[in-house]
Predict the 3D structure of the following.
Amino acid sequence: MAMLRFRRRRSSPARARLMNGPDSSAAHENGPPDPAGPAQDGRVTIEVEVRPGVTTIVVKGELDLVTMPYLATRLTLAIQDRPGRLVFDLSGTRFMDCGSARLIAAAGQRLPGGGRPVIRRPAPGVRRVLQLTGLDAHCEIEP
């Protein structure tokens, strides 16, 4: 009868950093990055344009687990002014995960009168995520 032995492998510090995210101690010596500021890693740029009655959030790059806090912070600041219409310009968004899609769709609950957020010019992959999750029913999608 053969006996199998399993050895426990010790993790190297480099492997631990990969599992826990990048080593940001050198990059953020003055504390964590400001979520209201631009993304530090260049993965996403989020700009908010405020006009009377309409707030437009322009997203360029990727919306995922890493960049979603930047979107959430910008969205919270944008909704404080209670705009009548909230537009997400996603024409420059290459990727969006389900969590970010839920965040955008749920923004309508915080609009006056329960309005629906508008998604302007989503890329085919972004539109597909909205369709697969059923969140497209909670948004107005402009081509």
